[in-house]
Amino acid sequence: MADHVQLDDEARQWQARAHDFANEYIRPAAQREWIADPDERFAWDVIEAGSRAGFRTAAVPPEYGGPNPALSPLTLACVIEEFAVADPGIAICFNHAIKDARAVARIGTQEQAAAFFEEFVEDDRYLTATALTEPEHGSDRWIQPEGFHLETTAVR
Description:
Layout: H1 9-29, H2 38-41, H3 44-52, H4 73-86, H5 88-107, H6 110-122, E1 133-134, E2 137-138
Antiparallel strand pairs: 1-2
């Protein structure tokens, strides 16, 4: 576990909890990456356990069912760091949920936040994702089959 001298006691407690959770749940689940069946491969049990432990909803403001107070960005980064040491893929699932919850809390309207967080907090499997696009092509910079490019169109 990394020793970050600038962490306060609460941050160190969350880091230690994340470290223990990663060793107990995430590290063993990382072996599922090699299972052919995607229904068996994805570690929903780890997502659910992490949700019950408060990791997935750690950035949710208290008025929407999150911890009081919502965790600092530094504390959240330490949680994700501990998860990533055990398995980067599972860490990304939690990272997206945490950063997207922070985005809704910071820039969403009250109506958007209320609608999003009601379902997000209640559903232990609620994960988020981010879509990217570039001019004339989608997020295919990682996929390079010859002559294949994703394209998107928005119509109002």
